[in-house]
Amino acid sequence: MGILQMLARTLDLEDNAFIEFCKHLVAVLRLLYYPPQEPDVTELERDFSAEAILLQDTTGGLQVWNKVSLEWIDVTAIPGAYVVNLGNMMMRWTNDRYFSTLHRVINKSGKKRFSVPCENAKEGAKNPPITVGEWMAGRYADTYGTFEKNTIGYDIGLKQYPQESRDSFNVLKHVGGDGPYIQRESYGISRDPPASCSVDQIIMIKRHGERYPEVETGAEFEELLKALYSTNITFTNELAFLNDWTYFVPDDCYLEAETTTGPYAGLADAYNQGADYANRYGHLLDGYNGSVIPIFTSGYDRVINTARKFGEGFFGYNYSTSVALNVISESANQGADSLTPTCNSEKNLTTCAALTENFSMFDFPQFDLAAARINNQTGLNLTGEYILGLMQLAPYELNARGSSPWFNVFTADEWVAFGYVNDLIYYYCYGPGDANMLAVGGVYVNASLALLNQSPAHDDNITPIIAALGILTPSSDLPTDSIAFGNPWSIGNIMPMGGHLTIERLSCEATAVSDKGSYVRLVLNEAVVPYQSCQSGPGFSCPLANYTELVSASLPNYVSNCNISASYPQHLDFWWNYNTSNALNYPAGPLGCQATTTLI
């Protein structure tokens, strides 16, 4: 019987419980050399594998720590015998039922000591939240770098760059705009300015941080859960957690508010990004000499609170005196002078309405398969439409609690389909699939070359800007009867909670292929996104003059396209005419229910 089989039995598991997680060896055999040494210079260690098998000779020197007596115990050296140390991976596998052995080697013999450890560190484990392969690859990379293997698995040398993709599936990419912030997939372009350039101006628009569901969505959740619990069954299998689970919204007053707890807390997200941007762009404040800097925000409390926390992170102790928070009304009579412009034009909402009102438009079998699987296990009678609603619970719970058992109810394929449903809604309702959204996004884009600002807003106000810039517009409309894999309009990449678009103006010296001058590049969720037709500048940037021409030529006129009344503002003006009061930098009193209060 093997060691892993014996360990499994002690935990009342099947003999092959650990073995079935294992495929290929990460390390086969090592030869370690220990010169004579004193105890006070000996390094303590725990093996990061599942187990380490050590071949013994007569030299000895291995000691293990006794946690009860708090002393080091010598391991008697028996020539030809093997000592088994359990490692960090086994500790993680067993939820700390077994502990990783803290040990050291003290060679007091005066002779050279060689150790031949065989580490049973195997790939392929499916025990969440990390596979053994990822665990071991990370530990070896930290310690030794990465290793090249020949066809039979033996190490043949250091590998400068890993060949495996360690994030082939991240569910946060497939929850649309409902889940926590995640950086956009990069094209490999450095986030730092090109070597010949410095950033001399930025314009940034940011979505509010992670939040609780909106009022309407919260009501839908309660109806779903009420119907589920009304069956009065004892839940089993994937839904067994529901026997003890509680809804993650403590009170209706929390609806629409940013979350303040857990690792994905929305207010913490905003503060942390402010601090990160202070490190990246703080040099832009050098010439302000105490001048008050405006931060612009739209009128919802959750968006205002994002602006406040971002400001606190960016300006630190100077936030209270250096910043003037300007709250821009979301009223339609703001016309073009708004972060949230509205469009009065009659528009074709056929596809948008169908997507949001008629579930049959989502002709994806994954939801029906999920319903059939759960119905077979529980005796319930769920539909594909019901499944779509249950899946939406997961990212919102993640925003508030930091984890959600709902993610484990559904398969990766089902999450891919869920993400594409969100792509469709944002494409046809708030993106390139609605021509009027180009005009709405053009208000901000037209003013984007003017002034450095940080401007929190909503997701459906930012996606029109992405559409107007044209950087991620698909070559044809997204199909509603199949998933468009490789689709650039992926909302998980474009506008998660806390998503942000930064327009950088670069001041660059001449290079062998580009002139001295100003260039522009777009950074979406911390990944550089170049224009396909304008990338001749350093770091694939676009010359400022070309950028201006490119953007201006493609934008429809907002005022005429959206039938804006002549009595309303005809262009964005608040960037140049703003107040310098810090009266709104902090709330005047306790925050009320987020769903019902706005300052303006």
TrEMBL record:
It is an enzyme of class 3 (hydrolase). Residues 27-118 form the Isopenicillin N synthase-like Fe(2+) 2OG dioxygenase domain. SUPFAM superfamilies: Clavaminate synthase-like (SSF51197), Phosphoglycerate mutase-like (SSF53254). Its EC number is 3.1.3.8. Keywords: Hydrolase. It comes from the Eukaryota. This is 3-phytase. GO terms for molecular function: acid phosphatase activity; inositol hexakisphosphate 3-phosphatase activity. GO terms for cellular component: fungal-type cell wall. Belongs to the histidine acid phosphatase family.
